[in-house]
Design goal:
The chain contains 17 helices and two strands. It has 445 residues and is mostly helical. The longest helix is centred in the middle third of the chain and has 37 residues.
Length: 445
């Protein structure tokens, strides 16, 4: 027991994603973006973003297949050699896949969020234009992928097969647990893909617009441009992460968040849920931000802005460390490199800290009372992110590699000197298991 505990604390699990290649590929995205825009200035922003995403993911796939050989990993659940094709099973799975697509398209069509205003139509228009353009390619590519994967899976009766059984009336063969997990996976993908894609297109458009402006470069313009690049970096892998959930590349979703609290805490941070029960209900700033309050102290102005840039860089590097395994409410493998080498939640910490520095809620041109309200609101928002972090820990504690990683952070993390003084802040496998956030698909055994 003591030997096992020592091993759990003293060794850091290997990250399932390579920070170096992820960083090089995101640099490739920006290089391709400016190069293509320079040679083809009339190329639409949506097409430009899609081409750059494609250019970004190709070297990632080559690296994963040739160097890391991710398709050989045990967690992929793939056979060494393809088996015999079962045509009936393949048809059932394809019915499940295309039936899922159809349900999502119907929800897109009738969901007022995507067309409730001119801004919403313009914002999400980029995604739906891309969807219309790529629909035939998605259908053909998915058929070829499923045709090959069905022969390679050790357990081919996955969520798509159960969905196909449901749609073809074979109800006795449907496993409700697997089907619910399938529904959760596709809710996550269906909800986040349009949002992330639309945000990326808007960031690309903003970067090209800022780059085309002439005149002297001020520190604040540099500040804004840098933050846009870092936020775009975060979204690049967000888009790739939600789209490329492939078993063949070991980027499939192993499980989704099993608790209602975890789902509420996450969705509370994204539109439209943020304005219904989330962070949008807690305005924490007025028209004055840090650049206004410190405009007359040039020395402090520059250093303060640099601190915000550094925090946003940490946020971007956190996503780069995850790579195209990035997605909310899911587990897709352990990440221990980059900022995750120092703390379990670098993205949340850096994001919330930057909001505090940017907004300065305790200062307000509307008076002390509004300053108090803004401060209280940002405390509530910070607490929501704390709940997100805690529910994620509860979920990931189902995996031994995460428990090993979290215990290592307890001893070696950058904040270990604080958590050792306040044990309530330390990770505890026992406390996480008390939430009973059992991964659903494991109940099959």
């Amino acid at each position: 027991m003591n030997i096992q505990k020592s091993k759990t604390i003293d060794s850091l699990p290997r990250s399932c994603s390579d920070l170096r290649i992820n960083f090089l590929c995101v640099v490739l995205f920006f290089a391709a973006m400016f190069f293509l825009h320079g040679f083809f200035p009339r190329l639409g922003t949506t097409v430009l973003a899609v081409v750059c995403l494609f250019i970004t993911v190709i070297p990632l796939w080559f690296y994963d297949f040739i160097y890391l050989r991710v398709h050989k990993r045990m967690l992929t659940g793939l056979l060494e050699l393809p088996g015999k094709l079962d045509q009936k099973r393949l048809v059932t799975k394809l019915i499940g896949l295309y039936g899922t697509f159809l349900i999502i398209l119907i929800l897109y069509y009738f969901n007022p969020v995507y067309r409730q205003s001119v801004h919403a139509i313009e914002f999400y228009g980029a995604f739906f234009n891309f969807l219309n353009f790529s629909a035939s390619f998605i259908i053909v590519a998915s058929f070829i992928y499923f045709w090959q994967m069905d022969r390679m899976q050790k357990d081919p009766h996955d969520g798509y097969w159960h969905m196909g059984c449901l749609l073809t009336g074979r109800l006795k063969e449907v496993n409700a647990v697997v089907l619910k997990e399938h529904a959760r996976v596709w809710f996550i993908k269906g909800f986040f893909i349009p949002f992330m894609f639309a945000v990326l297109v808007s960031y690309v458009d903003e970067m090209l617009l800022l780059d085309s402006k002439n005149g002297s470069i001020s520190f604040f313009s540099f500040f804004n441009y840098t933050l846009t690049v870092f936020y775009a970096t975060d979204v690049i892998y967000g888009v790739l992460g939600y789209i490329l959930t492939l078993r063949l590349t070991d980027t499939h979703i192993q499980s989704t968040e099993p608790t209602i609290l975890g789902w509420l805490a996450c969705l509370a941070c994204y539109h439209p849920f943020s304005s219904i029960f989330g962070i949008g209900l807690f305005p924490y700033e007025d028209d004055f931000q840090w650049q206004h309050w410190f405009a007359f102290d040039h020395f402090f102005y520059y250093w303060y802005g640099i601190m915000i840039v550094i925090l946003t860089l940490i946020l971007a590097l956190s996503t780069v460390a995850i790579g195209y395994r990035m997605s909310n409410l899911t587990y897709r493998g352990i990440i221990t490199s980059g900022p995750y080498r120092f703390t379990k939640h670098p993205a949340y910490l850096s994001k919330v800290a930057s909001w505090w520095l940017i907004s300065l809620p305790f200062y307000s041109i509307e008076g002390p009372w509004m300053a108090f309200v803004h401060t209280l609101n940002l405390i509530v928002i910070s607490f929501i992110y704390y709940i997100r972090a805690r529910t994620e820990e509860n979920h990931l504690s189902n995996y031994p590699e995460y428990v090993q990683y979290a215990n290592w952070i307890n001893e070696h993390g950058i904040f270990s000197f604080i958590t050792k003084r306040f044990p309530v802040l330390q990770y505890s496998e026992e406390k996480c298991k008390q939430w009973k956030s059992v991964v659903w698909f494991k109940k099959l055994g």
